[in-house]
Design a protein that fits this description.
The protein is α+β, with helices and mostly antiparallel strands. It has helices spanning about 10, 25-50, 80-100, 130-140, 140-150, 175-185, 200-205, 210-220, 225-230, and strands at about 55, 75-80, 105-110, 115-125, 160, 170, 195-200.
Length: about 230
């Protein structure tokens, strides 16, 4: 089955002056479907590799959840329904609703905006159970070594960022010292954790179907780090 191909107009739908324009909802829906199709391919790849995930996609129209502006479009892999239900049962009614959502999770995301196609592993600030699990693990020397080794094994171009901070910790040159610095500042419950790879618009347009292959390969490469992060209440 052919992969979706991104067109110039797909990027234009997310330029600032169009983000709140309902006339672009149909185009954004088309882009949403492309992203979801790629995420579904990544989900199938993950299953072949022994990872059980669900796929979902974000809103394509202005709404209260996106402050009535669609600045980017996204689709992503997250915990399976079975795993989310386990979290909900563990936390009970008060916290369980957060744990049972698709998006308050650790996710592997594919997104597009006016400038780039992006693949990212993200820990939501409210998914503190995963953030705390990761921070605890990397506090142990052997596990920090494993984390750094996985970062250095990623395809070129991945970088770790925290919340809206500018500093980038490049995965390919990651060190124990740099990661200790990162995790000393990282506070689950307050900060996003991002591990990001970007493909500029002009490259996406020139690659045709290969851009979707780039996305699936990038998403699959994040799976070992994704598993390392996830906290299991069992």
């Amino acid at each position: 089955m052919p992969h979706p191909v991104f067109l110039e107009r797909d990027f234009l739908a997310y330029e600032k002056h169009r983000q709140d324009d309902d006339e672009f909802n149909a185009l954004r829906l088309s882009v949403r479907r492309k992203l979801k199709a790629i995420a579904d391919t990544a989900k199938a790849t993950a299953k072949e590799l022994g990872y059980d995930t669900d796929s979902a996609a974000g809103l394509h129209h202005p709404y209260s959840f996106n402050n009535f502006r669609v600045s980017e479009q996204r689709a992503y892999l997250c915990r399976s329904k079975r795993e989310r239900t386990k979290l909900k049962s563990f936390f009970g009614e008060a916290l369980g609703q957060d744990a049972n959502t698709h998006y308050i999770q650790t996710i592997i995301e594919l997104s597009i905006d006016a400038e780039v196609l992006q693949v990212a592993l993200r820990i939501h600030p409210q998914a503190w159970w995963d953030g705390e699990n990761l921070k605890k693990q990397v506090g142990e020397r052997g596990h920090m070594d494993e984390w750094v080794r996985m970062l250095r094994g990623l395809p070129a171009g991945f970088g770790m960022r925290m919340h809206d901070w500018r500093q980038v910790y490049w995965a390919g040159t990651a060190t124990d010292q740099a990661m200790r610095e990162y995790f000393a500042a990282y506070t689950p419950g307050n900060h996003w954790l991002h591990l990001v790879r970007e493909l500029p618009r002009e490259d996406v347009l020139g690659m045709g179907e290969a851009a979707a292959d780039w996305a699936v390969t990038s998403m699959a490469a994040l799976l070992p780090l994704y598993r390392f992060i996830l906290w299991d209440p069992a």
